[in-house]
Write the structure tokens for this entry.
Amino acid sequence: SDFLSLLREAHRQMLANPSPHCQRRHSNNATKEKDMKVEVFNRAIEVDWIGRNISAVEPTWSSPNRASCNFVALAFPVTERTLHAALHQKTYISLFHTVNQCDGSFQWERDKPITCLGNNFGGTLGANTEKGCIEESAGGYQTMLWNKQNSNDALFQCLKHYLRTDEVLRMVNVTPYMESVVTNLTKTDYIGRRGYSRHDIDWSTLSFFHWSDLALKSTGILESAGITTSEETVGSMLRLMSAVKNGNNTALTKCVEGLRPPMSGKTDNTSEEERIWKETGAYLSASTMQQSPSSLLRSFPGSLHGVLPPSPTAIYSVNALLGTVVNVDSEAYYPGCTAYWNAMWRHQDEGAPPKNAFVETDLEANRNGTIFASLKKTPHLLRNEIIKTCAEDESKCPYPTYDLVIDVTQVFCGAFFHWMIETWPRIGPFLDGLLAENMPDNFAIRVGCVSSLEEFHPQFFDLVGLENITLISGEPPVFAKEVIAPTEGFSHSPLLNYWNLVAMRQKVIANLEPIEKSEYKTVLVIIRDASRRPDTFIFNNKFLKELSDGLPDIYKVVPFRSSDKEMMACMSCQARAFTTADVIIGSHGAGLSHTLFAPRGAVVMERVAKGDSGIYSELAFMLGMKYFPMDIEERSSAIYIDLITFADGFDE
């Protein structure tokens, strides 16, 4: 709550004891204090990810001895009590992604520097290798168990039960081929590559069919029986599938049944849970945050217990000119990745720092489009003159002036997920201080971007009690007597934004109370029926009716439609809808960001496609929810009903 006074004192001490490169000598006699002058200068994005004195991370692309001499970065340590509570918070380990998501697009790379240039997060949970990712995914995990349990000999014994009765293959002596058969299924044969789905046969039997197909094709058994065409091969596999499904071959059916691995995670399973395990391969395990499967944070310098991100930070300075002035849009002079990525985004140059983006230059073109276009002085001198003028005489400052600006400007802030999960929560750890009576009267929050979300920004801040706050949208220059930039909001990783998000969640839920809980368990289905990416071909009235009819009477299915204009115009209404949701079903997209407000223990079922990041599985995990990645093409409500039933009975 006293973060502002702490920052002011740290800044005062920094100016009183400047770093060597911030001291300028004015005579040959450097021993006298009067001959030393502190050089206070502003530079655009300079040194580190979250501040060099905060965490030992790799530098970005400029040298430490060029860092600004006018800012201070300060950490606000999480208390031992808060950290202990967070580490022991109950949550659930599940299969956080699908095999199709393990192509590396959003996986953390261990050997890639942690800088503004590297490592787009979103695969923070789980292994950082493709093999490890697959083994922890829906489909890959079940196939791994199946491979591990079943030896080559055991599988071949089941296959022989079929071969002995097949009208074409029964004459083949298969013994010579047993040693050359394929042992394990490969990545392309994993069941459920796109997530949880419903099949005509159970997943273990399907794995056996995949293995049998590999075995028959790779050993020469089919050729020995005179089967050479693709049609004949397909016919053999259809006969095998029919033999197992019809149960006519008792020995084969019993043998294949024995191939299914036992259900993991529980030892006292009910018959219903065993049925769901057989048909879906559903997996869930009770855990705590302390057992977080995050290889990134376990190797990240500065992480707390290798599980949670570093404590919140803030960067503070005085007499700041913010906005497009001379060089680059969203120019900033404090460290962090925001200004860097803003510049990169504008210049469409993702491979290297923008050419001359942060170099003070005399080029006339650098002044075009600003109020200084007709002036002859260099941008460097102009900028310093403006800062000096605004600091000394507010009436002569050419820009709007504020006593204090909290700057949360960030790239992609115009997109709903990025705004709600990365940008807006940056003020979370400092909310108590921002709500205190001793805050400066003329203080504002600079959100930076102009977008379709601009009209909703005030509602977001209303949710946490900052009503009627002055918001600065867009990128016109403003002058701040004091400026604070809170901890960066990390792209595609709710877990790295943990402290920000938890603080905002707690404040929003407290402000929404009392929350009226229904006598029913609410199943909230997010339906994009007014979206550029509609999903009504899946989540339609037929799906909703089947879901409602198939679940026990204690459940009530409630659609959350993007076409509901009244709901979509009211952020508190949307937040309140999720605070009472026991189950959340939706497609990968911004609507699932509201999971932030859902109760602990809620079930989250996300339709995911190849290339979708793991952002919502992270959000569900860190908030103690039960997560299931669903096949994006699955249209049947049956798999949803089974997984809801399974998760509801999982209260360990």
